[in-house]
Amino acid sequence: MPSSRGEEEEKPCRACSDFKTWAKLQNKSGITPPSKKPAASNTQKECPLDKDELGRSTWGFLHSMASYYPEQPSRSECEGMVRFFNIFAQFYPCEPCAIDFQEDIKKYPPKTKSRDELAKWLCERHNTVNVKLGKPEFDCSKVHERWRDGWSDGSCD
Ligand code: FAD
Q1: Whose CA is nearest to atom 34 of ligand 1?
Q2: What is the pLDDT of residue 10?
Q3: Any idea what DSSP says for residue 74?
Q4: What lines the ligand 1 site, CB under 6 Å?
Q5: Domains of the chain by range and CATH?
């Protein structure tokens, strides 16, 4: 998918495509084709993130932030977190993802009155993306085990 955020129209948007699609787009636009061993070279050379790498890292950050959010936040923390998600949705580097996320949080605005409320709200937002991509939904009752406490079977200890 080409970038539509201005200046570099001719370059395909790596953060909006999985690696294979991006590599094909590179070829079509006449840019030097990527290495034949994408996964290995991608990791070893610390290349820019594609859509899936960016998504995984971002969800990791967002869910961790929610699971470490205060249990009883102040009014200014509540308001700050609402502002954070609105600005995040505006600037997320995968533009088609950002547009859908903006729509989703317009429909379901951030719930920031407590840690549990925020973590559940975010889990549901992630599940909306999972469903859109045909992936299984995550059990939101386990969100703190996944992102803060470790699994109750002790496998993360
Ligand atoms: P991810 O979905 O990245 O999940 C990482 C880990 O989070 C999983 O392994 C699991 O342990 C845990 N997890 C899964 N679901 C939940 C949940 N509901 N709550 C808590 N933890 C969970 N990609 C697109 O192709 N199209 C899009 O429109 C799109 N929109 C996105 C919007 C946002 C805001 C973000 C951050 C990413 C978006 N992505 C989109 C990327 C996509 O969501 C995935 O990150 C990417 O496909 C890689 O998926 P994955 O299977 O590695 O796991």
Answers
A1: 101
A2: 67
A3: -
A4: 51-52, 55-56, 58-59, 63, 92, 96-97, 100-101, 123, 126-127, 129-130, 133, 135, 138, 143, 146
A5: 51-149 (1.20.120.310)
What is the predicted pLDDT for the residue at 25?
84
d(CA 111, CA 40): 40
> How far is CA 98 from its chain centroid?
9
pLDDT of amino acid 24: 85
Which one-letter amino acid corresponds to residue 68?
Y
- Between CA 156 and CA 62 the distance in angstroms is 20
Residue nearest to atom 26 of ligand 1 (CA): 97
66-122 pLDDT per residue, tens = 999 999 999 999 999 999 999 999 999 999 999 999 999 999 999 999 999 999 999
Flag whether pLDDT at 56 surpasses 90.
yes
- Assess whether pLDDT exceeds 70 at residue 37: no
For residue 63, which amino acid is it?
A: H
